[in-house]
Amino acid sequence: MVSFTLNNRPVSLEIEPATPLLWAIRDHVGLTGTKYGCGAGLCGACTVHVDGAAVRSCQTQMSQVAGKSVVTIEGLSPHSTHPLQKAWIAEEVPQCGYCQSGQIMQAATLLANNPKPSRAEIVQHMDGNMCRCGTYHRIIAAIERAAREG
After folding, report:
1. C-alpha–C-alpha distance, residues 70 and 88, integer Å
2. Which of 1, 60, 105, 144 has the fewest C-beta atoms under 10 angstroms from its C-beta?
3. pLDDT in the model for residue 150
């Protein structure tokens, strides 16, 4: 049994401690906003927050989240009103949309720690979150907008 907090709700799962957090979230809890991308922690599609830090859930074992707080895209804001979510819509960021929850979760940690990042800081922080459609210029614009309007 692994117990943790998921999107501000206590959760206890009968699960192997070595199970990746991604599969617990998707298959055991039923939250599908966190995506499987590469399975190797390289693309960022599975990014969630554990105790406020962005982590790759495909590489995070359940034993590592015991007693901790996990936030997925579904828990970022109750009605999709987080400044980044609003900026993503305003800047028309998604093309296919597959990587977007991971992109937003990665960006949210940047703005939580640095509310007014420079363009260079945005690029550096987002490095490693891949977008197969190549909408990087829109991703950066949305983060800049969220920082301005936040």
Report:
1. 22
2. 1
3. 78
Contact 37, 105 (CB under 8 A): no
Return the residue matching tokens 């828990």.
75
For the chain, where are the E strands, in sequence order?
Answer: 2-6, 9-13, 47-50, 53-56, 69-71
pLDDT per 10-residue tile (average), the chain, 150 residues: 97 98 98 96 97 98 98 93 96 93 98 98 97 96 95
- Check: CB of residue 90 under 8 Å from CB of residue 47: no
Cβ-Cβ contacts under 8 Å for 81 (sequence gap 6 or more)? none
CB distance 144 to 120 below 8 Å: no
- Chain CA centroid to CA 7, Å: 12
CB 133 within 8 A of CB 95: yes
H/E stretch holding 102 reads helix 100-113
Q: What is the pTM of this model?
A: 0.96
**What are the tokens at 94?**
């998604």
Candidates 11, 140, 144, 136; CA nearest to 68 is: 11
